[in-house]
Amino acid sequence: MAPPPMPMPSPSPFPGDASPHMAVSVSTSNLGGEVSSSLSAPISLSADADAVVDDDDDDFERVALLPANTAATEDRETASSAQTSSEASSSSPAFSLREFATRGEVCLFVATFIYALQGYVAKVLEQTVPAIEVVLVRSVFSGMITVATGIQVNRHVNGWANKTASERFASVVGKSENFRLLLIRGIFGASAFNLAYAALPYLPLGDHTALFFVNPIFIALASWPVLGEKVTLADGASIVAAFTGTLLIVRPTVIFGGAPQSSSFWLGIWLQLGAALLAAAAMLTVRYIGKRETPLVVAVWFQGLSGLSSASLLLTPLGALLGQTPIVPNAKEAALLGVVSCTSYAAQILLNRGYQVLPPARASGIAYLQCLWSAMLGAVALGEAVTWPSVLGAVLICGGGLAAALYKKKENKAVRGGGVSKEGNRSTAAMRETELVPTSERAGK
Q: The whole model's pTM is what?
């Protein structure tokens, strides 16, 4: 599947990268927060909010790298987008390809397909290239883009030229008092990233994608004991739906009978569920960090630790024990590695553009198309069987998450005053409102 964000999340276990021009998850995500994270979020592996289950959690790395003058609340973004569309339609009746291509729905539609395509390419690639090597190449590429983008954006906000070298360094790697939390979040995110890629060879592409979408359920379950947040009736219903959907995909013989699943299938199941659990832990950690650090800092730690962890596994005897012996890729494999890296970047830009201009519930609904694309690519390009239990399981997982998102949207409207949600009831999409520069610095500008 498209690796997200944990965003962090919308849900993609393959985080993305950053653009100086729009919100980007840098697995977070990323992929919005992240990053998402969802990023949707894929990484969309990060979130700074409550009720992550209703937004771009799949991304597990959806961290938005927004210039100061573009950050806005979700309500203002949505209202502005609607007003712009209305004005454009009244003053310019002619069809505009540029306007159509940048619509949130179109961006998300294309992004979900690219993510699924990326998962297909990675699955083909891992037939000859170790999964950890794929993670290493992608992390290095994403890390370079993340740092370069962050510095470029920082040059245009809050007097970057007037900052000392230590202040510039801190704006990229964070404050020393937050290193412990950033390290924990990075370890969770990097581990989820590696497990998601490691699971790809053992599972049908559609099942691989659908199982990662259960990470919002882990977040909902952990939010009460960890963050003291209530689990609503809608959250409970989505948990039951996701659990039932997972059983339909896994089909344990003790319940369904028939021939037992292969050991490799079960290995893939546990790896992917472990990835979803760790992605949820990464999101919760980012929510705990809150606005003490910028999305850029969170993304840099995630990408750095992803690269370090994959390199340490690949280049030590432990890698050989795990069957992850590095190879020198041939021309075809090198090209496919480039495709995985580039498609993750392109998909995350489109994904975060969609989450930037659309209401979270609508965006999340479109993001679930990734399950459909993955199942179709697996069936058509890889010859994987599509069974009715798997289809029904994916529908239950995605439907449960979407229903919870719609309920949370209605609940948030009821408690919102003046366009701002009550404290402690922010969604994962709120990461898009977080700028590269802390609020305290912007206020003193």
A: 0.70
